[in-house]
């Protein structure tokens, strides 16, 4: 009788062991899936980081180009202003024409500066959006890590 009870207990424990083993296999599968998900998130984060770096370099190049264009526009304006002043000394009748040309150059310069400021603001907005996306991805990765830690 005692042997029979022990045999039943052993069978029951073997069933529990099988059930626990099955659960462990399921947990290992869940862990593998989460680790793969974390790995994919890390890859996406690295890709976004490279993209942000690329955008930052593009922004720097665009700012540098815009500065060069503004400087060239200033140099052209200064050059034309000098030419206008020498013409004013030569011909009093061309004074009104030279003033009109100078005003047009100032408007062109202001238009160029407005376009530069607009483009710069657009690039800043895009950079801020990229940084926001980067922060969002980092928060998601942190969430996955904490979820992973909570599971175990």
UniProtKB/TrEMBL annotation:
Location of this chain's protein in the cell: Cell projection, Cilium, Flagellum; Cytoplasm, Cytoskeleton, Microtubule organizing center, Centrosome, Centriole; Cytoplasm, Cytoskeleton, Spindle pole
Keywords per UniProt: Cell projection, Cilium, Coiled coil, Cytoplasm, Cytoskeleton, Developmental protein, Differentiation, Flagellum, Microtubule, Spermatogenesis
Biased composition (Basic and acidic residues): 74-84, 107-117
Region named Disordered: 74-117
GO biological-process terms attached to the record: cell differentiation; regulation of cilium assembly; spermatogenesis
Ranges annotated as biased composition (Polar residues): 93-105
Domain of life: Eukaryota
GO cellular component, one term: motile cilium
PANTHER family: OUTER DENSE FIBER OF SPERM TAILS 2, OUTER DENSE FIBER PROTEIN 2
Family statement drawn from the similarity comment of this UniProt entry: Belongs to the ODF2 family.
Protein name per UniProt: Outer dense fiber protein 2
Natural source organism: Hylia prasina (green hylia)
